[in-house]
Write a structure and sequence with these properties.
The protein has 457 residues and is α/β, with parallel strands linked by helices. It is built from 14 helices and 16 strands. Strand 2 and strand 3 form a beta hairpin. Helix 2 runs parallel beside helix 3. It is globular. The termini are far apart.
Length: 457
């Protein structure tokens, strides 16, 4: 048993003082009580938060962070950025994938994440052939997470076509080729591997409506995958919306809702370009909108209709997506600041008429949406939840003696990143004093791998 005593902690029912947390041998909280006194064996901490969740990640793209910032054409867009991404994707081996994932996931822990949903579609080898074990690459991702002690929801992703009307995959997409049967087999392999259930679970990904036909989507989400989370890229770019209307006569979200039952299992990633009717459909479905503010800003996607969506009690979470910058605080700050610039107003994220802390509300809502999108019924500093905790170094706060949501507002809006002190995942301290024990080793391995990949490409 591990015992912690926290002077200020954010519990599901709000901030509490003098909180005692007991962690059982199964890596979950066996007891969480406020207004207590520390026991002799308890480690004493100042401020603790439930860690954030990245509900959308492409781990391999960390290997191109900062390399796509040169204009390639007179009008540089997502579609031109994609050419560099394909080039990187075509040159990664399974061993290199595990190194990249381990390094990224170590960075995530140090930044204050303890769970990631990995939207994984690098299924085949460099020639487009299946590995002897079709789940090879997905298992490498899971191994990377286990190496550093981060929770991962692996989402083997269906990718069949290069565009609407069943256009054949491009040569640079041959590693992504999959079928519903292949995805189900990969899911089964991950589930049956016998690894740490506390750190690895599984869902399914659908790359997009342009990359999979509706019959295959229905086969996968209504078939043997059961009730696992379902994630899909949707309505990220106006070009995608226009192509969908041309091919189907409907906008993407409308088309999806017309053909499948979208419910709380679903995470609709980006959903940037929506009609008012589509906003209402997503909010009423209890699905999660997977927002990736840093990546969406980096790619010039546009603004998600956040104010209208949350006014309908829509659920959302944050994702690191392209992993160009690993910072849950920056994701939330970019979300709020984008809306401020657009609306020429302040504290925009709060639902209409709601008073109080912008940062505190954003942080809590993102946790709830992220936990749902990763298939967790319980998340946070609560009895029965996985024992994940992020403590803050209060000496890095600009102003002293802050309490409650004033702390969250301060770290989100006055510091460059969360002042992470220690991070625990599943009852084990993985980050101490802002560092992971494998940080130097994984950084060296990552740099060696990327040098090799770029020298060969």
């Amino acid at each position: 048993m591990t015992e912690l005593f926290v002077k200020q902690a954010l519990l599901p029912d709000g901030w509490k003082k003098n909180v005692s947390l007991v962690i059982g041998p199964d890596g979950t909280f066996s007891s969480v009580k406020a207004d207590t006194r520390p026991s002799a064996q308890a480690e004493q901490l100042e401020v603790a938060l439930p860690p954030q969740i990245s509900l959308h990640s492409h781990a391999f793209q960390r290997g191109m962070a900062g390399l796509a910032e040169r204009r390639q054409t007179p009008s540089d867009t997502f579609w031109t950025w994609r050419t560099l991404m394909y080039k990187l994707a075509s040159n990664i081996s399974p061993e290199q994938m595990e190194v990249i994932a381990s390094y990224l996931y170590m960075e995530m822990l140090c930044a204050g994440y303890t769970q990631v949903a990995e939207f994984h579609y690098l299924h085949r080898d460099k020639t487009g052939a299946l590995y002897n074990n079709p789940a090879e690459m997905a298992l490498r991702v899971a191994s990377g997470a286990q190496t550093v002690g981060l929770g991962v929801t692996v989402l083997p992703t269906l990718y069949m076509y290069s565009g609407f009307d069943a256009r054949p995959l491009l040569d640079e997409q041959k590693r992504f080729a999959s079928t519903p049967d292949l995805i189900m087999n990969i899911c089964q392999a991950i589930t049956q591997r016998g690894n740490s259930a506390a750190l690895v679970n599984v869902g399914v990904g659908l790359h997009s409506l342009r990359a999979a036909d509706m019959a295959s989507i229905k086969t996968l989400v209504e078939g043997k995958t059961g009730t696992v989370p379902v994630h899909i890229h949707i309505s990220e770019q106006m070009g995608e919306v226009e192509q969908c209307v041309s091919a189907t006569g409907s906008r993407p979200v409308d088309y999806l809702f017309e053909h499948v039952s979208v419910d709380a299992r679903w995470c609709l990633v980006h959903a940037t370009h929506l009609s008012g009717r589509e906003v209402e459909k997503i909010a009423k479905s209890n699905a999660v909108a997977g927002l990736c503010p840093i990546t969406e800003a980096n790619l010039g996607d546009g603004f998600f209709p956040f104010v209208d969506y949350v006014s309908l009690n829509g659920r959302f979470g944050i994702g690191s997506d392209s992993n160009v910058l690993i910072s849950p605080g920056e994701e939330l700050r970019t979300l709020e600041y984008g809306m401020r610039l657009s609306a020429q107003s302040r504290c925009v994220a709060l639902p209409r008429g709601k008073m109080g802390s912008t940062g505190g509300w954003l942080y809590r809502q993102a946790i709830a949406g992220g936990a749902q999108a990763c298939g967790f019924g319980k998340w946070g500093l609560i009895e029965g939840a996985r024992a994940d905790i992020c403590t803050l170094d209060i000496d890095k706060l600009i102003l002293p003696h802050l309490e409650g949501d004033a702390i969250v507002d301060a770290v989100l809006f006055s510091l460059p990143a969360l002042p992470v002190e220690h991070v625990m995942c599943a009852g084990v301290w993985q980050v101490r004093d802002g560092r992971h024990p494998l940080q130097d080793k994984l950084t060296s391995q990552f740099r060696d791998v990327m040098s090799k990949i770029f020298s060969e490409s």
